[in-house]
Amino acid sequence: MKKLNIFITGASSGIGKSAAIELCKSGHNICGFARRSDKLKDISEQLSSEDGEFLITEGDVRNAIDVDKAVAQMTKKWGGIDVIIPNAGLGKFNPLDKGTIEEWKLMVDVNIKGVLQTLNSCLPHLLKSKGHVVNIGSLASRQVFHNSGVYCATKHFILAMSESIRMEFSGKLAVTTINPGAVNTEFISHTDNDDLRTEYEPKFEAGMSPKFIADAIVEAVNSGGRGIYSEITLRPDRR
Ligand code: NJP
User: Which of 47, 57, 75, 172 sits at 20 to 30 Å (Cα–Cα) from 31?
Assistant: First the structure.
């Protein structure tokens, strides 16, 4: 299988971290990007000499200079980009009449503008390699849930962007959207509404493991030449 050069944002925890590890283990080179570079270092420790290489890049997806710098480091090291996984994202749950404009703007800045920044910085390289965009959507990409209207809107955006990439770059790029339900990560810890966080925590703890999502990402990334998974929806097994 061809060794691919893969850029993952939000690789310091949860789904991004697990995807970075599993993709390295399947032989690919990973550039992991996040603000907490100490957490990125943990990933290197879990890899062996038979795995792909792991490059640590520290930065914030809201900062174009950070993202461009990481892309430059990655392309200097490996010569190009084959896959991007703009995974960095967060949800701050609150009913609309309790949510603050600051938390709404933060979700828009990271989940929408951060994804656009990543796509924009990587697009010339992806077009050169006829690459693959693996977007991280959600069950909230199609459904709207109570207490998470703005988060759901940012995830509806992901599906719209994936469809737009699929149509406009037909024959030039592949695109996959991964739509998980609850996954047991740091995700719910970002909700400031104490009552809601306490109520939701057990539901996320009982959710899927990040590795289950990462395995689906590996499957999508390694499907090249055989077919493209446009969407993969993953739900917790509540039986
Ligand atoms: O969450 P978490 P998940 N600049 O909190 C990074 C979606 N999703 O893995 O910068 C750069 O463990 C942060 O890194 P750091 C969800 O919407 C989840 O669950 O070091 N990076 C960390 O690595 C999101 O799109 C569930 O703090 C920034 C990562 O993002 C994706 O899955 C369900 C950043 C977040 O890791 C990963 O979330 C679903 C910034 N400004 C969709 N801000 C779920 N967990 O249930 C954050 O449907 N990061």
Answer: 172
Note the pLDDT tens digit of each residue in 22-63. Answer: 999 999 999 999 999 999 999 999 999 999 999 999 999 999
Structure tokens at 233: 């929806």
Q: Are 134 and 220 in contact (CB under 8 A)?
A: yes
Token readout for 236 is: 């917790």
pLDDT in tens, 134-186: 999 999 999 999 999 999 999 999 999 999 999 999 999 999 999 999 999 99
Q: What does the pLDDT look like over 95-148, one tens digit per residue?
A: 999 999 999 999 999 999 999 999 999 999 999 999 999 999 999 999 999 999
Instruction: Provide the pLDDT for residue 1.
Output: 81
159 in contact with ligand 1, CB cutoff 6 A: no
5-9 vs 83-86, strand pairing mode: parallel
User: Is residue 151 among the annotated active site residues?
Assistant: yes
> What residue has token string 């993953």?
234
For residue 8, list its beta bridge partners.
Answer: 32, 85
Question: Ligand 1, from 13, 17, 22, 109: best to mutate by most atoms within 8 Å of Cβ?
Answer: 13
